[in-house]
Specification:
By secondary structure, this protein is an alpha+beta fold. It starts with a helix and ends in a 12-residue tail after the last helix. The chain folds into 2 domains: 127 residues, Immunoglobulin-like (Sandwich), CATH 2.60.40; 144 residues, no CATH class. It is 19% helix and 37% strand.
Length: 310
């Protein structure tokens, strides 16, 4: 009797251990996906209707043959998803893929390369009806697995969604001057260095304090401007972001509604604002693209009430 009890307890222990190991990702039927160190060089997403290619050029991510600048953080998010993908279960070893929408006409193949070598090749099929898992195929293998995680942002990526929407990104600490033009009137802000007075130390030699800075209107240096209001104004360029891109050629735009000329320690950038129909469009002296901005952003260029800066 005791012997039977011991055998039953041993069997239960083995089953419990198997379940725990399986739930922790220790399923012997699941391959361990290789990973890679550092950043990838290329991510290709092949869908039945289109292909999206992300590649690094001179250290920056670009999109497709047009080489559009990509949003670095967004691409890093996609790479993180692909690097950390986890297999949850083995579904089939029969090489039947149509049931899981893993065929070339239905599946989405994602390839990651680094240094010319493929470090991830995975095809995504349909979602499991009973969970948040997705059916996947590794390379040209016959097996079908379920992968856990959220893959919508990866699989539904678009050129528009991944393009860098920064019109300009100028650190506020580097800005030394601003000129806004609206309705034919210029409003110019200048960063002025204020020399601190020499303080006597009670001896023959004086001790000079470090200089400070303040913002003033050009031509009216006797009056300092509100530091908090100016900080908010400078922040609009760090970065100045668009909501999308326009197909209107940059050369077709003339007579801006408003503009801002930003003088920084390492150069000068001009952003011009236009209105076409119901859309506000913006162009930068540093970019070849025409951006779309929302009304809230556009109104920041409409500076008329200078009293609010005092």
């Amino acid at each position: 009797m005791k012997r039977n009890i011991i055998i039953c307890m041993a069997i239960i222990a083995i089953l419990v251990t198997y379940i725990v190991v399986r739930n922790r990702g220790g399923n012997p039927d699941l391959p361990e996906l290789p990973t890679w160190e550092g950043s990838a060089d290329e991510i290709v997403i092949r869908r039945p209707a289109d292909t999206l290619r992300l590649f690094r050029n001179e250290g920056k991510w670009r999109i497709n043959e047009e080489a559009y600048p990509a949003d670095a953080k967004a691409v890093q998010g996609l790479e993180k998803t692909l690097r950390e993908i986890s297999l949850a279960d083995l579904v089939s070893e029969k090489g039947i893929f149509d049931t899981y929408e893993l065929t070339p006409g239905k599946g989405i193949q994602v390839t990651v390369r680094q240094g010319g070598e493929t470090v991830r090749d995975i095809t995504f099929g349909k979602k499991s009806p009973a969970s948040q898992h997705v059916f996947v195929r590794l390379g040209r293998g016959r097996e079908v697995y379920m992968a856990s995680g959220g893959f919508d942002s990866l699989l539904e990526s678009t050129v528009e969604g991944l393009r860098d929407k920064n019109i300009c990104a100028i650190p506020r600490a580097s800005i030394t001057g601003l000129t806004f033009t609206y309705r034919g009137r210029d409003t110019t802000f200048a960063l002025e260095t204020v020399k601190a007075p020499v303080k006597k130390d009670g001896k023959a030699k004086g001790a000079k304090a470090a200089p400070t800075t303040r913002w003033v209107f050009r031509g009216r240096k006797e009056e300092s401007l509100n530091a908090q209001r100016m900080s908010s104004l400078l922040a609009m360029f760090d970065p100045l972001r668009a909501t999308g891109f326009s197909e209107v050629p940059k050369t077709f735009l003339s007579s801006p509604l408003a503009s801002a000329r930003v003088k920084a320690k390492d150069g000068e950038v001009t952003v011009s604002l236009f209105k076409k129909g119901e859309e506000y469009l913006a162009v930068s002296s540093e970019q070849p693209y025409v951006f779309i901005v929302n009304e809230w952003t556009a109104k920041k260029f409409f500076i008329e009430d200078v009293e609010s800066f005092r």
